[in-house]
Design a protein that fits this description.
Blueprint (H helix, E strand, L loop, with lengths): L3 H9 L5 H23 L5 E6 L2 E7 L4 H12 L6 E2 L2 E3 L3 E4 L26 E4 L12 E4 L12 E7 L1 H8 L14 E8 L1
Antiparallel strand pairs: 1-2, 1-9, 2-8, 3-9, 4-5, 5-7, 6-7, 6-8
């Protein structure tokens, strides 16, 4: 059994801090658990596309900060309001968001590849030219699984309501260049609370 002197020395030099260390560790674990729970249960960012054919609600992926952030910023600035779905390829995609038609130049954003999500039916991705890092404002919604696009196009969201509207747009009559014969207008895009 240690003498009183040895017990005083251990206490003085921090040798009795094991209980304190355990208490601190438990508090930290509790804080981490609360933060993780709040992160997992925070509301997802959703955007409603009010179109001339009905409404489409998209949930943005929070693990795609560049692409989702760009889309959200464009929505907040009204860039998509009054644009059209200018490209409809039956059983493939519907494409819209061409800000240049309104005289708006949107800077390019870097690709977020490799994809964390796939081009499955109902997913939303940034359209771009064949050049890397060339996406601006145009986006497309997949009408079917298009996994062959995963290596080139950043998927940043998924349709959570209104897939019937997406399908209806996907079935409109088009010309030889895949442009709808009658405009399908994206009247407004708004964040959903």
């Amino acid at each position: 059994m240690p003498s009183k002197y040895k017990l005083k020395m251990r206490k003085k030099h921090g040798l009795f801090t094991g209980k304190v260390k355990v208490l601190i560790a438990l508090v930290l674990i509790g804080i981490i658990a609360v933060v993780a729970y709040q992160m997992a249960n925070r509301p997802k960012v959703r955007v409603i596309l009010i179109t001339s054919m009905g409404n489409i609600t998209i949930e943005l992926y929070d693990d795609m900060p560049i692409t989702s952030g760009n889309f959200k910023n464009l929505v907040l600035n009204g860039v998509y309001d009054g644009t059209i779905f200018h490209r409809v390829v039956h059983n493939f995609v519907i494409q819209g968001g061409d800000a240049s038609a309104k005289g708006i130049n949107v800077p390019t954003i870097p690709d977020e590849l490799p994809n964390k999500h796939s081009n499955v039916r109902g997913s939303v991705a940034m359209a771009k030219t064949s050049a890397p890092n060339s996406a601006t404002s145009q986006f497309y919604i997949n009408l079917k699984d298009n996994l062959h696009l995963d290596s080139n196009y950043s998927v940043f969201g998924i349709v959570v309501e209104g897939m019937d509207i997406v399908d209806a747009i996907g079935n409109v009559e088009t010309d030889a260049n895949d442009k709808p014969l009658e405009d399908v207008t994206l009247i407004a895009a708004d964040l959903v609370a």
